[in-house]
Every structure is written in C-alpha cells, then in structure tokens.
Amino acid sequence: MADDELEEDITGNGNGIKLEDFFHGQMDQLAADELLNQYEPDNYYLVRERVITESSEKPDEQFCISLHTRVNGQPKKVHFRIRQSYDLCVIGGLVFHSLSELVTYYTQVEIYPGGRLEHPIRPKHSCPSNRCVMAIMNYTKSAGTDELSLTAGDVCQVQHKNQDGWMWVAHVKSAQSGWVYDGMVEDLNSPNYDPELESCEFYHPSHREERVEELKSRPTGTYFLRPSAKSRSVSVLCVNCNDAIKKFEIERIPGGFNLSGKAFRTIDEVIQRYSVKYIDEKNEVKLREPLLRRSHAASNLPQEDIYAPNRASSTQIRECQLAAEFHCLFPKRRSRQRAWKRQRCILHRRQDENHEVLITSSSEVGRQPKGKPKGLIALEFAHLYPVCHGAYDRPHCLQLVIFNEVSANSTPPDVYVLAADSQAVLAEWLAALKPLCKCSKVCNHGQRSGHVRHVSTLEVAVKGVRNLNVSCKTAFVAVHFNGVVVAKTRSNRREQDDDSVLNWDEQFHFEFFPECIHTLSLHMTRRKTPKTTKVMKHDVRVSDLSLGRTSDFKVPAAQDKLQLCFSVRRVGYAVLQASKDYVPIRDIFLKSKDDPTECLRALAEVCTSEDLTYLARAIYKVFAYYDQVANLLTSLLLREIQSISSESEGVLFRTTTIGTSVLEVYLVTDEPMQFVRHCLGEMVQEIVNSNANLELKADRLLHSSGEMSDLDEADSIARRNAARLIELLNSCMRRTLRHCQASGCPAILHQVSVACQQETTRRFPQATARVLSAFFFLRLFCPALTTKFRQVFGAELHQEVSPQVLRSLQLAAKALQLFANQSKTMREACMELVRPFVCENTDLFNQLNACLTASPDPVAPLSAGSSADAPSSSSAGAAAAAASSSPSDLQNISLTFELASVHDFCARHLDDLRNLQTRSGSQNLNTLIKATEFLSNRLSNETNR
Asked: Where in the numbering of this chain does the Ras-GAP domain appear (predicted)?
C-alpha cells in the first residue's frame, strides 16, 4: 500500500478500527491466552489493559496487544506492550494519538514477522480504554498553570500519571485536559463505567446504601441512577414512589438505551419522557427532582501537603529538562502535509530513567506551554543522525530517526527534524542528546571497561556526472544513511565546453559518525523534491571503507552511459571517556615554552594534504573552547610570514598551510558568515530575485539564446550586462566600507589582519594589500559567491537558483578577484568589460585596506603560559546547560573528542615525528611523542580489558 493511502487510513475519519471492536479492558496475560486459545492462530488479536502491581516491570506500559499467529508453521501467542504518555501511545518508538490509530496502522504493517492485526476479537461488553476518576471537591485552577478546574462529581479519564501524585486527565463532558491531584478525585473501579452515564449529575457509581437511605427522605418523584450488580450493560433508575424505592432497569443497547421495551437515544430523553408521563402508573409517580451527586468529605491532606510534591516535582523537572523553540518537521504519515511548524521541545527524564522529548505548542518567551503535547520522541528508540547543509534548506538542523523495531524494519523510519534558531541552541541540544540516543549507546566498543568509545567521522565529496543527457538540464544528488537523507547538493553547473558534464564539487563532513550506520547511498534525481524519479542510485557499505583513506567511486548507470563520480573518506579513532586523560596533549599545544606552535607545525609537516584539513578543524575547536583562536591564528600566520623569503613573496597566503587551513575553518563560522551576508547580501538578493543573466561572453549569449543570431547584438548585450554588474559591485563595495567603518568587521579577523599587516609591511614593503586580498576577498567574499554560496545564503533564499544566476555570481566573484589583486591585465577577454571597476575604484580599495588594517587593541601572539584551565564564557555557558541532563563529564565531551582526534593524528604519524625530532632535537616534540605513546598504550590496555 502506498504511503499516502496508509496515511489516509490512519488519520481519516471513519476509516479506522473502532475501540469497542478490540479493547477488552483490564485483563492479565493468562486470561488473554485462554481467550486467544478459543480462536485459530490466524492473526486474531485483542488489546487489553495490563494488571499492574507494585512489583510489575515497567509500570508506565499500561496497555498490551495480544496476538495469536503462526511462527514457522507453529501457533504462537505474542504480547506487545504499549506505553501511554498523556494521550499518546508509544510502541517500538512509534507514537500514535490513540489506540485506534495504532491498531489501524498495524493492520497494514507487520507488527511481528509474518503477523498482522487482521481479525479483532470483539469483547462482550464495551470497555473504557482509560482509568476514570470522579472529583470529590470543587477546585479552581491556579492562574498561569496547566491545572484543570473541577466541580464535585465531574468525571475525567486519566491519560498520564506522575509518581508524585499528579495526573493528566481529560474531562468526559467538556473534553478539556489538565493536571489534577489524586487527593481531589476518587477512582471509579466499577466495570459498568459508561461515559454518557458518568456525565449525568444524578448518576452515583458508588456509595449505594447511603444514596438509598437519602432517597427515602426526599419527596416523591426524586430519583437517581446507579450501576447494576448483575450486568455491565444495565443501569438501575431508583425512584421514590410514596416512600417506597422502586427500581427500573435501563439496558444499554447499540445506539441508545432500552427501558420497558421503549428505545431512547440518550438518558436525557428517558428523563424528559417520564417527567411528563407516569413512570409508575399505579402510584401515578413522575420524575420530578434528581438526587445530585454531592461532594464527599475533603481529603485529609492539608492543601499545602497536596502542593508540596508538585513544587518538588516542578523543581526537579526544571533542573533536568532542556527547553527551546524549534521549527519542526514531523514524519509524513503523522500529517497530511509535511510542513514546518513552530513548536516548543522539552527534554526531560521519565520515571524509568529514560529520556523523551515532548513537543508542545509554541509559547511566549519565559512562559510555560499550555495544553497537551503535539508529539513525543522516546530517545531510548531514537538515533541521532547528522544533517549537512542543503538537506532541508534550513540552517542549524538536527534529526532524530526512529526505526520501527516491532515491525523488524518492514516499514520506513520516522524522521523528526528540528531546526534551531541559532548555532548555540543546536550545539546545546546536540551535547545533551548524544549520550541519550540509541546510536550513542551502541557505539561503545569498550563495554567491559566502559572507558573507551570508538568514534568515526565521514566526508563525502560529490564531484560530478558525465555523459548526461542534454534534455536533463539540472540534476541533484542526495546522500542517505540507512535510507535517511542527510545531505543534498545545492549548486550545479555544466561545463562550458561540454554540455554532457555536470559538476557539483561539494563536500559534506559528518562529525561523530554513528556506528549504527551501515549503508551509505547516493541518489541522483532530476529535481530536488523527494518524489522525483531517481536517475541513478548507488549503495556503499561503510564496512568496506578503509579507515583514514579516500575511496574514489566512478559509478556507471545501468541503462545508459551515465557515470557519477564521488569520493568517501572515513576516519576512525578511539576516545577515552575521561577528558582529564588528554590534559598532557592539550598542554603541549596550549602551554608550550619557547615556540608555542612548534608541535602543531611539525604535525602539519608530516600530515598529508587530506589530513591537514581534519587537523586544522580539530585544533581550531580546541583553541575556540579556551577562547584562544585569535592568538592561534596570529602565531601561525606570523610564523608563515617569517618563513617566506623575499624571492617567494608571491606565494604568501596563497598556498595551503596549517595557518591558512585554520583560517579557512574560522571563516566558515557564524560571525564571519554574518559579515559576508551583510556586505554581499543586497547584491545577491537583487541578482537572485531578478533572475539576472549578467553573461559577459558574447559567444555564450549567442549560444544560449535561440532568438539571437547577430554577434554584434550579443556584444551589445554583454556590454549592458557589464555595466549593470559594475553598478552592483560598486554599491556592494561602498556598503562594505561603511560597515567596516562602523566596526562591523569580526573582531578576531580584524585583530589577526592588523598583526599580519604590520609584519607583512615590515618584511615586504611592496605587498601592502596582501592581507586584504588574501583574507577578505580570496578566502571570504569570492568563495561565498561560488563554492560556498548555498552555505552562506541558503537560509535567506526562498526560491530555486537558476544556472544563469549561478553564472552571474561566478562572474561577480571573478571581478572581485581582479579587484583584490588590482590587476590591470585580464586573462579572459570577456573580463576586459569590468576593467573600469578595477581601475576607477583604486581609492576605494585603499580606504578598505586602511580601515580593515587599522590597529585596534593590540593582540599578542600565543605565548607560553596562555591560560588553558578555563573555557571561554560562551563555551562554559553552553556546557553547563548541557550538563544538567547528562553524565558527569558531558561539559567536556566535545573537547575530549577533538583532543582524541589530535592524538589519533599523532599516533598515525608517530614514526615521522620521531625522525623529525631526531633531526631538530626539539624538546617540545620529544614531550609530544612521549605523551602520544603513553595515551596509545592506555587506549590499548583499556580496550583489551
């Protein structure tokens, strides 16, 4: 069955299975087995309420599905527990809004290998699916809380109960929900419960003798209704007939009630009829006045004692929970339209020490959400999957994936996507969720010692496709882990000389790659929407990837000559759980004497070009944790300036070194990206919104336009395009200058630029603008318009970007590159049209150079004794928030992983480091080698324990 048809069966009105067809009320497993034995093992089933005692395992699992099926030809009875939280039902990690929805779903999907819920066993009498309580006192809820106001005699259904005595109930008559205390209500244990009868104010389910004695003292015609002791479907109407109590049986029939052979739709019709006609014709008695339920004696608990556990519970919840506003994307089968919704997510601990995420309606800042939850994610079943840019066209995303464990992977997983408002909120939630989700629990390979965790990172580079059909103008590639999308390509462009080649050249980096992921898939489609037909698909088993090496793939399609090119690199390393074990490694890089960056530069020298990017990323995060990024960049780049001879001045800041690699890692963080969006955003928005084609090559214009046949006309259009491009670039550079003059440049980038500018001017007096061109234009502005365009501006774009817009942005980047180098000669003939932009804005370039290299507060290079004992304030704040619901050392978990990654680099290149130390005789390198050997031996011993 298609997903949309199954979704319609679950959510549509009237298509689901009704509760009275399968629910049998409270029943133990032995009684359920005896009932199932009366039927053939042909997928007969029933749903029952478990008999829970104080010694019961998992008392929050209230309901159970009992199924009689066949396994390997032999009859077998299987029982599946269902947990209820509020009015949500959870089974195998899947969340349903009712028992009827759950049962309807598993009539279409296997709940057990070879078994579905096909034939319901109908109970003899209808039973309620929730425990019912009745209020014994009047209560008005406190303002600003989720409590429920009650009147004595109100009947409610219990949907969730806390250990502290508070329960979430739904009013039978008004359908309102809220919290009540169990001292304010009494349990209705009668099996004769009927919601319609309970809504009557003259219905008395208990205290029968007291009500009969009270009825005798009332006037003739006074009446009340009570359950019958003989049958669940019969109620008794007790009437005072001249001081004698007469009883009239009212039988529950399909669609109404039966009294003395007459059918009535409701109890109110019974009362209305016999209020005008004699119910006792012999004594001529009519129903006159009901005997209403009155409140019983108030609970012996004082009011302050009632609220004491609630206050204690609220304090406990606030200490362990994490709450934030997210844009949420729910699984498709839960909603007809899978759309983003603003919701509030709350992380808290359950009674069984497991965690769950409650999704409620969005509330005002500083106020608690009201109403029942919109969804629930049980983290004991959830896998935390990574998300790269482009997967959902939203920044700061995380996704929780729940595979249907009951159905043995026969159904697609449920994917909950949460998009945070900022990177800080995302980092806080990721730190809190990683130790709690299932994927984090199964990747602990050192289970016997509990001290070692194995961590993997993965990088996927999607290069391009060859021999593409000319009719296929665009194509996209999506990366899937175990069938769950985690990344999508964002930009695509054809080669200028060969229309059959389409290049993406995009890289996706996945940190903390879960060990539970065993399959990597690449799907190529013609469009970005998920319902488009796949052009080709290729699966790669993660176990086949060599650790630390890049695996290149050229995948041919089955039907034609298509060839998809991509590469995958997987890096794995072991991590000691305690962060204090990595203090020696940390101190070597942060507190080295004499030359603080000596060990880092030596490690970069022996690393391969591929390892250099990973090393730079790990080192940056370690120094960022201690707020030492500016000092690190300054020390590395100053050392690079000093190491270049006067004859090699042309390669300054142009080659890939450890200094420029760390700089590139910093330039893709939030603060520099915000600076780029402010400077270039207006120009980008104008080009994208107008779908501008600013092509400068006349032959490309002539080739792309079928209506244009004259080369002179194409030259004229190219000149008009150049004039418009120059106008946009002039406006963009003036805006950048104003923003920099208003101190809008990122503080760290400004400080590093000033220090490097001073040293560059001293060493190379003729290279006065090398820092401006290399740092701001060539490594920040130009990549933002080309390779990193979607990463920078993707969140602000609300439409698909056409290839001609991407080409226009590429030409703008080329013009900025010429402007940065102050080139007077153009390598491409078409770029001669933008020469006026370079030549006429020399003063503007000098003003930018002076503004961005003006000296702020002096920044000292990294020196011995730099403080590494306390993290920065922002890091500490996020860590403290995450530590509230995590293991004892969670606040340092990210730092521990990065230091472990650095140790892995040192261990893999230990022989090269020894040779380098032998040649140089460096004491710092000798200390690094000893610390690496000590940690490697420690890891080996802990893993083998």
From this structure: 611-821
Same domain, 107 and 147: no
CATH number reported for the structural domain that contains residue 10 in this entry:
3.30.505.10
Cα–Cα dist 390/412, whole Å? 22
746, two tokens: 């990122």
Contact, 276 vs 287, CB < 8 A? no
pLDDT tens, residue by residue, 864-884: 444 455 554 444 333 333 333
Q: Do 872 and 903 have their domain in common?
A: yes
Express each pLDDT in 47-106 by its tens digit.
988 876 545 566 667 789 999 998 888 889 999 988 877 667 888 878 888 888 889 889
CA 596 to mean position of chain CA atoms: 39
> Which of 675, 385, 678, 664 is CA-nearest to residue 507?
664
**563-576/452-466 β-pairing:** antiparallel
Dist. CA 220–CA 104, nearest whole Å: 51
Alpha-carbon distance of 132 to 186, in angstroms, equals 9
Domain count, the chain: 7
Q: Is residue 754 part of a domain?
A: yes
Cβ proximity of 227 and 205 under 8 Å: yes
Residue 683 neighbours by CB under 8 Å, 6+ apart: 728, 729, 731, 732, 812
CA distance 253 to 266: 11
For position 426, which CATH number holds? 2.30.29.30
pLDDT in tens, 623-664: 998 889 999 999 999 999 988 887 777 778 888 899 999 999
Instruction: Indicate whether 300 belongs to any domain.
Output: no
Q: Do both 178 and 231 map to the same domain? A: no
Would 632 be classed as within a structural domain?
no
Q: pLDDT at residue 725 above 90? A: yes
Q: How confident is the model at residue 447 (pLDDT cuts 50, 70, 90)?
A: very low
CA torsion, points 432, 437, 439, 443, in degrees to nearest 10? 70
Residue 880's alpha-carbon distances to 356, 366, 428, in angstroms, are: 20, 20, 9
Q: Give per-residue burial for 535-551: e unless 16+ CB within 10 Å, then b.
A: bbbbebebeebeebeee
Same domain for 822 and 729, yes or no, is yes
Same domain, yes or no: 674 and 800: yes
| Nearest-angstrom CA–CA distance, 332 and 13 | 18
- The residue assigned the tokens 């919104």 is 689
Q: Which residue type sits at 241?
A: C
The DSSP bridge partners found for residue 547 are 570
Q: Give Cα 319 distance to the centre of its chain.
A: 22
What CATH number is given to the structural domain containing 777?
1.10.506.10
Threshold 0.70, pTM exceeds: no
Q: What is the pLDDT of residue 282?
A: 83
Per-residue DSSP letter, 1: -
DSSP for 438-489? HHHHHT---TTTS-EEEEEEEEEEEEEEES--TT----EEEEEETTEEEEE-
**Band of residue 620 on the pLDDT scale cut at 50, 70, 90:** very high
Residue ranges making up the domain that contains 691: 661-852
Q: How far apart are CA 332 and CA 339, in angstroms?
A: 9
What's the half-sphere exposure (Cβ side, CA atoms, 13 Å) at 903? 29
Same domain as 816, residue 756: yes
Q: State how far the Cα of 86 lies from the Cα of 95, in Å rounded to an integer.
A: 12
CB count within 10 Å of CB 83 equals: 19
Give a yes or no: residue 438 inside a domain. yes
**DSSP result, 45-74:** EEEEE----TT-SSTT--EEEEEEEEETTE
- Helix %, strand %, coil % for the chain, to 5? 40, 25, 35
**Cβ–Cβ contacts within 10 Å for residue 211, how many?**
18
399, 849 Cβ separation under 8 angstroms: no
Whole-angstrom Cα distance, residue 674 to residue 666? 13
**CA pair distance 6, 758, nearest whole angstrom:** 68
Amino acid at 737: L
